[in-house]
Amino acid sequence: MALYAELHRHLGGSVVPRILWGYLQKNHHPLVEQFSDYAAFEGFYTRPRNSLEEYLELHKLVEQVQTAETLPYFIYRLLRGAYVFENLAYLELRYTPYLRTDANLSQSERIDQVEKIVEIVHQASRTVEYPIVTSQILCLHTALPYDVNRAMVDVAANLSHAVCAIDLAGSDRLYGERMDEFVDLYRYAQSRGLKTTGHLYETPNGCHPDLLPYLMRIGHGIQIPLHYPERLPELARNQQCLEICPSTYLKTGALDDISQLKVVFDRCFEAGVDIAICTDNAGLHNVRLPFEYENLLTFDIISFEQLQACQDAAFRHAFAWRYGPRPATLLHDLLQDQRGVGNRLTASVLP
């Protein structure tokens, strides 16, 4: 039974190692020749990196094989695993569609292909037999010029049936020199009615308060409770939700130990700031969302009550979930109704 919502998952990092290796082997991809066997590939693909920049290089490996022709293959397997192994009822997939276009074309020709990529992802998500509500978040990217990023905002606004929001991704070392540009893009996105999230306050390099007012949700944001807790009351007033991805911070070196997240959760709960627990790059981490839940509980970072609050927050802040309470609440109410009927029937036959 699907119960959970995943708000922060990258299409490029969502392919689990076994699926990617199988595709590379089946298509005789040159990457296969770099590894002696699957174990060597998995070890390379999932090991921790020294920095966010080094970690992001792995996305390039997947982006080169996620083309217009192959995206349905990967999306089918992604959604199948999300439903069968993760009990997901809702999934927002984020990615930069421009980076799935034909790299042999000119910039303007690639921009023209962006809409096609978004529609391919949309149709592939709809033809899967697994009942998961899905939507796309289009990532603006720090490695791309302004014109490309603005074009992706336009595509997001024009294809609202497929896209629920925009994001900002890429190396946060590049934020500062282009902050005015990104603020302008977010203002433009809001003028077109788009919802917004963005990778911000993930590492010490990504702490830019100028962009905060334009985000409905904050991708990661762990540096705020860790080093800028005075900002938490403002986030609570603005009902901004943090998308916390526990495994990521160990893979990128942002945190040395998962126990450091206890401060993040404690301060956010104390200030009334919502948290949605997410996976970020489930394939790169070789983990699934229930494992993230279990890990936080096992290390006494959160309680079961706090976990439930985070699960509720995920549906409450989901950009394209239009069905009120999360499925677990609906099931609970249904069972209560059934028990009530049963009790009334028992009472009617008792002497």
List the topology elements.
Elements: E1 4-10, H1 17-26, H2 38-46, H3 52-63, H4 71-86, E2 88-95, H5 107-126, E3 133-141, H6 146-158, E4 163-169, H7 179-191, E5 195-196, E6 199-200, E7 217-220, H8 223-227, H9 232-237, E8 241-244, H10 246-252, H11 261-271, E9 275-277, H12 282-285, H13 289-298, H14 304-316, H15 327-349
Parallel strand pairs: 1-2, 2-3, 3-4, 4-5, 6-7, 7-8, 8-9
Protein name: adenosine deaminase
Family: Belongs to the metallo-dependent hydrolases superfamily. Adenosine and AMP deaminases family.
EC number: 3.5.4.4
Describe this structure in words.
Its cofactor is Zn(2+). This is adenosine deaminase. It is an enzyme of class 3 (hydrolase). Keywords: Hydrolase, Metal-binding, Zinc. InterPro entries: A_deaminase_dom (IPR001365), Ado/ade_deaminase (IPR006330), Metal_Hydrolase (IPR032466). The structure is a single chain. 49% of the residues lie in helices and 13% in strands. It is α/β, with parallel strands linked by helices. The chain has one domain: Metal-dependent hydrolases (TIM Barrel), CATH 3.20.20.140. The strands form two sheets. Strands 1-2-3-4-5 form a five-stranded parallel beta sheet. A four-stranded parallel beta sheet has the order 6-7-8-9. Helix 5 runs parallel beside helix 6 (146-158). The longest helix is centred in the C-terminal third of the chain and has 23 residues, at 327-349. It is globular. The two termini are 39 Å apart. The relative contact order is 0.13. The model has no long low-confidence stretch (mean pLDDT 92).
